[in-house]
């Protein structure tokens, strides 16, 4: 399909110093979750090149940049409002150039839900929910020499990079900032809880991240609470 030129990328190639991605370290404090005695099933890392027993994730977190930034002369901005403005509020999630993130894309299944996360901005965090409406297929931008994510080493008969199609589901009831999620993460690391091993903090720069069911449900529950 033909993609509009304005919708260029959700990219892995973010600057070394992302604005807002390193908020002031919050106190671990206490989590309002009621998960203090929650026992997390031990999980191994998943999705990397050559990984063994991969976890079958059903939920995801997708990072995209809501503020203008030029990469090779092209604005890579793509906010949740830009998604809502697309035909049928649907677009391809292109421009991923990290093998682990690509493998996570390839693991995605139809109708699975993902958080839309605004990254590389003044206040990063979760703004909405999208769903997977087309499973992984070759990312056309890898073959486009005018695209900032062109990869001359990728061949059409054996493409290296994949993308999926996502569709807007809804905005979260409120913006859930990274700082708030991190406060719960620190509390759960201290006392046990669903965000104890959340990849958002273990692999902060990865633009495609899996979520366990417990992580997804807990973060989603925050939209009904007052900001901490």
UniProtKB/TrEMBL annotation:
It comes from the Eukaryota. Keywords: Nucleus, Phosphoprotein. It comes from Turnix velox. The keyword Transferase does not apply. Specifically binds 5-hydroxymethylcytosine (5hmC), suggesting that it acts as a specific reader of 5hmC. Residues 27-36 have a biased composition (Low complexity). SUPFAM superfamilies: PUA domain-like. InterPro entries: 5hmC_binding (IPR052181), EVE_domain (IPR002740), PUA-like_sf (IPR015947), THYN1-like_EVE (IPR047197). Pfam families: EVE. GO terms for cellular component: nucleus. This is Thymocyte nuclear protein 1. Its main location: nucleus. It is found in: Nucleus. Residues 58-221 form the EVE domain. Residues 1-24 have a biased composition (Basic and acidic residues). Residues 1-51 are annotated as: Disordered.
């Amino acid at each position: 399909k033909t993609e509009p030129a304005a919708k260029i990328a959700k990219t892995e190639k973010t600057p070394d110093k992302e604005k807002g991605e390193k908020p002031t370290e919050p106190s671990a404090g206490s989590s309002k979750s009621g998960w203090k005695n929650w026992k997390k099933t031990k999980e191994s890392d998943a999705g990397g090149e050559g990984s063994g027993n991969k976890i079958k994730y059903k939920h995801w977190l997708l990072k995209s940049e809501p503020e203008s930034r030029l990469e090779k002369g092209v604005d890579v901005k793509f906010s949740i409002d830009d998604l809502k403005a697309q035909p049928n509020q649907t677009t391809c999630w292109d421009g991923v150039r990290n093998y682990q993130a690509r493998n996570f894309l390839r693991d995605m299944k139809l109708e699975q839900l993902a958080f839309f996360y605004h990254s590389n901005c003044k206040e990063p965090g979760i703004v909405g929910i999208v769903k997977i409406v087309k499973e992984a297929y070759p990312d056309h931008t890898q073959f486009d020499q005018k695209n900032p994510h062109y990869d001359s080493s990728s061949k059409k008969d054996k493409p290296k990079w994949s993308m999926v199609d996502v569709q807007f589901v809804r905005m979260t009831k409120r913006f859930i900032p990274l700082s708030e999620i991190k406060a719960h993460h620190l509390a759960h690391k201290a006392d046990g809880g669903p965000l104890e091993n959340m990849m958002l903090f273990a692999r902060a720069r990865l633009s495609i991240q899996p979520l366990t069911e417990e992580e997804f449900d807990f973060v989603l529950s925050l939209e009904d609470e007052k900001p901490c």
